[in-house]
Structures are given as C-alpha cells and as structure tokens.
Amino acid sequence: MMDSDDELVDISDASVDFSEDVPPLDFSAGRCKVEWVQNSSPKLMDLLDENVPGIGTYEDFNTIDWVREKSKDRDRHREITNKSKQSTLALLLSVSDAFSGWLLMLLIGLMSGALAGGIDIAAHWMTDLKEGVCLNGFWFNHEHCCWTSNETTFQERDKCPQWRSWAELMVGVNEGTSAYVVNYLMYVCLALLFAFLAVSLVRAFAPYACGSGIPEIKTILSGFIIRGYLGKWTLIIKTITLVLAVSSGLSLGKEGPLVHVACCCANILCHFFTKYRRNEAKRREVLSAASAVGVSVAFGAPIGGVLFSLEEVSYYFPLKTLWRSFFAALVAAFTLRSINPFGNSRLVLFYVEFHTPWHLLELLPFVLLGIFGGLWGAFFIRANIAWCRKRKTTRLGHYPVLEVLVVTLVTALLAFPNEYTRMSSSELISELFNDCGLLDSAKLCDYTGKSGNVLGNVTAVNGSNGLADRPAGPGLYTAMWQLALALLFKMFITVVTFGMKVPSGLFIPSMAVGAIAGRLLGVGMEQLAIYHHDWPVFRGWCSPGADCITPGLYAMVGAAACLGGVTRMTVSLVVIMFELTGGLEYIVPLMAAAMTSKWVADALGREGIYEAHIRLNGYPFLEPKEEFHHKTLAVDVMRPRRSDPPLSALRESGMTVEDVERLISDTTYSGFPVVITQESQRLVGFVLRKDLVISLENARRYQNGVVSVSAVLFTECDPASSPNALPAVKLRSILDLSPFTVTVHTPMEIVVDIFRKLGLRQCLVTQNGRLLGIITKKDILKHMAQMANRDPDSILFN
Q1: Strands 711-713 and 762-767, how do they pair?
Q2: Is the C-alpha dihedral spanning 732, 734, 738, 742 positive or negative?
Q3: Per-residue pLDDT tens for 379-407?
C-alpha cells in the first residue's frame, strides 16, 4: 500500500545545503508588486472563489489537519455572528447553530441508550436459550419466565414448571446421564451456531465490526480517517453480532464494543448537522462525547464514562466537550434506566451494596490484589499481542471462521461442566460481588453454624446481618475448587479470544478474572479470621461472632485491579467501580488496588492493551503519554536525507497544468510545498494533493481555454502577459500561506510536542527562510520507534 497517510513529500528539488550565503529575495521573478491599501485586495477572477465540492476534504487513511479545521470553524462562526446582527432571521439561525450541539448530544444519548437496552435484553435471552426455553413464551429469559410463577421457592428461585431445559423437552427427564448429555450437546451446538452467525455476518457485511473498536476509535480521535469504520453497516452488523458473540459463551464482553456502537450512532447523526458534517475536527469532539456515552450505557456509570473518554480515548478534549459529554452520558443512562433491561431498576446486572466497613489492615490484601492485577495485565498484553501477531503473519489469519468455531467449541466443551464458567461472565461477576445473606442458597454462601447447621436454617444468630461465625461448609469448598479451575480457564481462553473476527470487549473478562481471584482471597481471609480471631492482627477489629470480612468486596477490588492492569485506567476505573456498587466508602481500597496494579504493570511494560493493538496494527497514533527524551534535532529526522533525491516542490509561477499533473502522477505524496523559484527555495506555502487534483479537474471542466500548457499560478495577482495569452489557472485560494515551520536546529523533543499539541500532519524545515526539508507525522513515529529499538517500518496502516 502506498504511503499516503503522512508521507506527504519526499524532499526532491534541492540537496540539503546549510550555507549561510543565501541570495536576497527577488521580487521580479514572475511575481507582481501590489500596492497595499487597507480593506482592499486585488480583484481576481478566481475559479475557486466559489466552494468547490471536495476541496478541504481528506482521502481514506489520511490524517486531518487540525489547525486548518479549527480555522475553518472559527471563520464560519465569525460569519454567523456578523450576520446575526443584520436581521432577526439570521439571529434565529445563529441561536439554532449554537443549540445544534446540545440537540445532537440528546439524540446520541437516546439512540445509544435504546440500542444498549436492546442488546442487553437480547443477549440475556439468547444466553439462557442455550440451557432451555420458556413455555409461557419463548421470548422470556429464564428469570422473567419464573417471575410470575407461584411454584418457585426461595431456595430454588430459578426452578419453575414454566421453564423447561432441553433435556426435559427432548427426553422427558431433568436428571441423570441422558439429561446431562442432551443439555451438554444443545449448549455446545447453540454456542457454535451463534458464533458461526456472528463471524459470518462480520465477514460478509462489515469487516470493521470485529474486535472491541477502542484502539481504532483512539486513532480516529487523534485525527486519522478510516472510512466506513463508523458507518451504518458497521453499526447494524456490530449490534446484531455483539448479541450473538456474547450469547455464544465466548470469553468476551459487550462493554468495549458499546463504545464503538455509540460512536457509530454519533457519526451517523453528525451527517444531519452541517456544522459537524463538514468539519472533521468538530466531528471528533462529538465522537469524544460518544465514547463517554458508550461507557455510560455499558456500566451504568455516566460520570465514569466522561472520565474514561477524557483519560483513555480522547486526543483533544476542550471544556465544551466535557459539558456535552456529561449531558449525553446523562441522557443515555436515563434512557437505559427507562428501558430497565435487567428488571431490577438498576443500570447494570451486577449492582451490589456492602454493609460492613473495611479495616485499615485490609489494605494489605487489597494491595496484593493490585499486584496480581498488574502481573495479570502485563502477562495478558504480551500473550495476546504475540497471539495476534501470529494470526497476522501465519496461515491462521486466513481462516477466521474456522478459528472462531474452534475457540467456541473448546470454550463450550470446557465451560459446561463447571457452573461458574457455564453462566455468562456478567452473572458470574454478579455472583462473586454478592454479599452472602441469611437465606442465600448459592454454594458460595454455604457456611455452617457452630452447631453444624447450614446457615440458612440457623435460628439463633447474632451480628448485624444475622450471621455469626461462618466456618465454610462443604458447598463452599466445592465452589472454591470450581472457581480456581474457572480462573485458570478464563486466563487462558481470554488471551486467544480477544482479537478474533467477532465483536469482543475486554472489560468483563478482565473483571471476571480479578473477581474470581478476589473472592478466593476474600474467603481465605474470612476463614483465617474465624479460626484465628485471637491473632494480634485480628484481635482489635474482628471479635468472635462478628461478620468483619466481606469476600464480595475483595472480588470487587480484584476486578478493578485486573481491569486496571490490562487497560492502565486509574481515575475513571475507580469512579466506574464505585458507580457500579454504590459504595462511596470503598473508594480507598479501589484506589490502592488500581494504583498498585498500574505501577506493577507499567514496570513490566509501558503500554496498555489498546496502545499495544494500535502499534500492532501500525496505526499512525502519536501517544500523548509517551515521553521523548532523546537529544536529536529536526535535521536528523527530516527528509530528504543526504543520499535521497531532491525535494518535489511546486513553483508559485512559471509552471503549466501539464507540469503539475506530471508531478502528481509521478509521486504518491499527500501534499507539496510551494516555493518562489527552484533556485532560491524561498517558501511560499503548502498545498494538499487532493485539493490540487480537484482544482485542476474543475479548471479543465469549467474554465474556458484551459489546456495542458496553461499557466498555474499561486501568486496574488496576474503577472504581465500579452492579450492573446491563454487564461491561467489561479490556485492561490487552496494554498496554505502559514504552514508550520521549524529550523534545522530545533530539538526533536520540541517538534514532537508541537505535533502532539497541535495535531499537525507535517512541518516544514527551513534555514534563513529557505526550504530544506519536511517532517511528517509518520517520520516522527518512525524516528520514535527507531529510538526505542523497534522496527520503524511497522508504522504503516496494515
């Protein structure tokens, strides 16, 4: 593929010459003298005075020019403000323009909330469909089917005559070997069917609908253009296949892809508003807000969503975008709450509330969970990137359908025998977060009283929630073994699942790994306190008979630690977790675990999972968090090098249409510098390839008398010419007269900072006003890769 992104020009008309002896400016060479009169300008018949369709737009896999886009928006805003003083109608149009941003946020929130609610309901139903069907109506999931039944008991609330397992429907029995085999086969077959439908739809209709989408959205928000990535087909297919992929039982979540879905909604709705349709920088502000909406509906955490957008995905996040993100996240959360997909008046499946305060000494196990999360995060990133690289570079990548089916088959075969892997990851997390109550019948709550009775049957109890000393019962020991096996299974299978050609999020599998580890540690601490409450560590705060350790809290802290280790989120992670649980008093444990996890993971590898995937795919993303410490200069990075051919540059006058078209056809660069003459190399400006091509095509089509030998002018006025001369093509209006320039001695540290903070595509290198070279965004990325001992040729959109 051609280097169209930022490989804008290879310097091609002057070898690098650092001599200080530069000839003085010569105004006579094809230029005209204009007397400057305030508020006046030469009247030129310029073809491009009118808006030409396509001018100012960008090719696919190109980077936008942030400075140019912001300048266009300021000009538009200035024009509307000036007109608003002239008439009432113009004033109303000005007000509607100001209000359009808020209206767009309202629509994004409503659409994303509605889609998320639909996805939640459909995924819940199809997940339960693998185990059985409701006789009252096949569209009811297991929980809703048994809600209206009068024959459920508190101990077995999920069993009712209206819900039939596949074994009951096919062989008439619910117990025994035959029933187990039938249920097993139906579980595996439906899992394979759902996975096959998901991968087939993605391959056939929307290849961009696979994966989580967050690495690509980060790249798009940094200014890169990937046409179709946020289109209507991607939205439709991602929504359908996300339900299928989650229902298949694969170790993936829907939270990351919901960010992609919300951004697709935002991109589609932007087309109804001129302000956002025509300006790529303004559209990216909307997409930043949509990222917040995605997390808001994924976790029911509107504030966490705004912070996630700010901390993790956004490249440019002005204060106005913060307010609008907050509003859009609020609308989305309200919409989801109105739909009530889980029937519990909550926004998420695993909302829990803990009642026991934590003790200062518990910070030690919380920090241990943070260390585990950091180690798991670093291991997962390395293993997953190695597997994805193998997929890219071997024959494995040629068979995406087969890969998905094999992984689904292995997942289903290993998951069914263990009840903690058979249930969906969201249900598993919900169960692990749960604080055992008096009447809980789950195996995780199978404790025995001092008399040997199961706690559910204990009548004489003490303590705040009716639980006395809680020695583990046989059910709890079984659950611990099953959870330990589930932990190993999830750690392995998530590595190969993330990155397959189906929609796959990473939040829920990471949280599941951490929640299992946390619950195991929590139960261990609880039993230690029960059997050794006379130890000095426990004596002060864990008196006999008191319920002082909450295993569910450890699961929550473990979930936060593992998610933090994989994504390197900190502030937004803690806020998302406490919005999930409603427990403000648990912020300190969450903060301790999140920070420890980040420190440990950063010590083993600087990149989070999304940055690692951006680098693997070769996207031109300039990481804002990565620091540049090397003492190189602009001259070390600019092109042309001393051995390269000279710079391809345009002259402001003296070139014909044929000359310009030949230069365009002979090169693949995305733009060209314009100089006064080839000899002086005095810089005039910079022109984009696409603008040049469109302008010349329009001139040939609509301007009379333009032929191959017609002159092309970038000057401000007509040079002297004979009356019979052919009409010239004037392209001054597409010329950027203020391109960013640096000198050859500018440290690369400053150049990198300029590119990051201004979002530049390219920067010209001059000395004493004379053009010597160019540095593009891709040159910077290659140089940074080289300095970090990585392959510089990996910076390419693969």
Answers
A1: unpaired
A2: negative
A3: 999 999 999 999 888 888 889 999 999 99
